[in-house]
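step 4 of 6: structure.
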Amino acid sequence: MMRIFAVILGSLTLSACISVHQTPLPDNSAVAIYYPKVASGDRPTEMVLATSYQRGSGGVAANEAESLRRWLDLAEGGNQQAQMILGSHYQATDREKSAYWYRRAADAGNKHALFSLTQLYTSARNGAPDYQTALKWAYAADNAYLANLYQKQLPPEAQAEARRQADDWKRDHPAKDK
Amino acid sequence: MSVDRHYPAAWPRRLTLLVGLASIVGLGCMSIRLAPPADERAAKQFVPAAEKGGRVAQYQLASSYRYGSSGLPLDMNKAALWMRKSAEAGNGDAQFALGDMLAKGWGGTPPAPDEALAWFRRAAESHLGNRLWLAEQLDKGGPPLGVTDRAAARELYLAAAGPSRLARHRLGQMAERAGSMGEALKWYVLAASDDEVARLEKGMKRPDIERARQEAARWKS
């Protein structure tokens, strides 16, 4: 009786602890799964495919042109996520293009885009910091901390101008509940 | 005497203890990793359909050769061969990818910017993103194309102006750069670029503004 019990117990512990893994095949989802979906007109999957080309995952190498053309298409179609990605894509190299896409996302009601705009205009990576425009977007975002920070850099008349522009923008783009 | 009687009964208990301990301490954490099976995904999924002339499968096969995935070796010549088949069958993605490959060139094959540009242009006809991308490349120059052609960029933006707010904005910028403020204002109004409209209207005369806005309204209808 004891012997049977021992054998059962032993084999149970052994079988529970020994694991056999099969090494999986390399990922080819971008080519095998996402591409046919995108080719038949699946827009949300196009976002995934663009990200694969950005990161070089899913069986493709990183390719800026391939991801950029898809983001441009999605962003023009009103995809806010694609607009934000384009904003950050140009952020370090081209302030004007980056601002354009953050602006598009902000106009469509994206709150993160307002914050990104303040960061874009105060960064020294792509031109001199522009505190007046940054202050405008800080007011538009109702971000008191950043507004206070930028006010210290500006004379009162520049602050008033930023306030006026922010109020104009808010009037034209009333906040959406979200 | 008493030891003899207990001797046989003690063995199973010790065996249990031994096996249990061994499995927890040593054997217990044994994991066996098997080699991956033969990768036949491209051969099974893409090749039959590609040989039948499916342009999506041809693109998939070409991409597998291009990046060395799905069980195929990296082979740019075969990639270009299949990509061309798919592109000639009218696959816009293949036209773009072929243009990209030709613009960069690969081992032994030098870049062919003229042929690449021709393929990018064909790809632009079917896809708004391709058109905006190509216009941006031609406007700013630089890799992968290495060509600056502002007039061609303007043509592309004009062709995309209907569905694309970005194209209208860029047309406004181009007109502003060229110094024709009325034209620039018209495009900015159409692109709903409020900041630019306000900036231009500050420096323009009343009748010029009126005329630009009328032209914008006419373009819309």
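step 5 of 6: annotate
 - Chain A has two domains: 29-77, 92-178.
 - The beta strands of chain A are 19-22.
step 6 of 6: archive
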